[in-house]
């Protein structure tokens, strides 16, 4: 299958028979037509969800029973697609509408959404919020991205973000996803970076300014842009603490020159 945008391309390199219709691999449809891809990967799933919920409406279920049905037989069917694909916002809203119409029998909700999805120890009903679940599934990719391996599936995002130190390094940075020039990055990884930015504060244990990563930081800007210096990165000058003496004072320019080994690089 031809990769990239080739909707109106009639070429047939190497004499191969290039498929122009969507193809399916590992349960996911692939196509150069984004709308067609979304339709095949999500519309059928949503319709099946709607049919399943309608079949359970005839039964006299308690509120807890309905929530268990949604979690066990409904959302579970969407986990795989949501974990590997970007879900359009209109599909997310449609799924949530179907779920809450089932919960409240098509009537206005009697409990606030924030309460029904809350923990039971706080008075909630532990209902799964699909939007939050979708974001969590994207964030779950972070440990895999940060693992130091040369897995082939990492090649495309790492190369697309080589000017930022690669995708794995970027996930550690205090970046602003809106200021990154990531036009060549697949939309799935953009989604992962966006949701990771909004949630990683809860996982950070060391908030000391000395621990701030210099590259791609929203707090360190030159002419309004977050810098990333590849030669610094290659010399392991990554955090603010790498620019400091043991007494906490900044290195002088000459000391930094020596640290960076600029003279050695020139001689090489």
Write up what this structure looks like.
This protein has 268 residues and is mainly alpha-helical. The protein has two domains: 13-139, no CATH class; 142-267, no CATH class. The chain has 13 helices and two strands. The protein has a two-stranded antiparallel sheet with strand order 1-2. The radius of gyration is 24 Å and the shape is flat. It starts with 22 loop residues before the first strand and ends with a helix. The model is unreliable at 263-268 (pLDDT under 50).
How does the major sheet shape up? Answer: 2 strands, antiparallel
Q: What's the total helix number?
A: 13
SSE series: EEHHHHHHHHHHHHH
Our Rg estimate from Cα atoms comes to 24 Å
Mean pLDDT: 86
How would you describe the oligomerization state of the chains in this entry?
single chain
Number of domains: 2
Strand order, sheet with most strands: 1-2
The amount of helix comes to 40-55%
Based on secondary structure, the structural category is: mainly alpha
Are there runs of 5+ residues with pLDDT below 50, and where? 263-268
Give the overall shape, derived from the CA principal axes.
flat
Give the strand content.
under 5%
What descriptive keywords fit this protein?
268 residues, mainly alpha, 2 domains, two-stranded antiparallel sheet, 2 strands, 44% helix, 2% strand, flat, disordered C terminus
Helix and strand arrangement:
Blueprint: E1 23-25, E2 28-30, H1 34-57, H2 63-74, H3 79-84, H4 89-103, H5 113-116, H6 130-139, H7 142-146, H8 155-160, H9 167-170, H10 187-199, H11 230-234, H12 253-260, H13 262-267
Antiparallel strand pairs: 1-2
Helix pairs in contact: 1-2, 1-4, 6-10
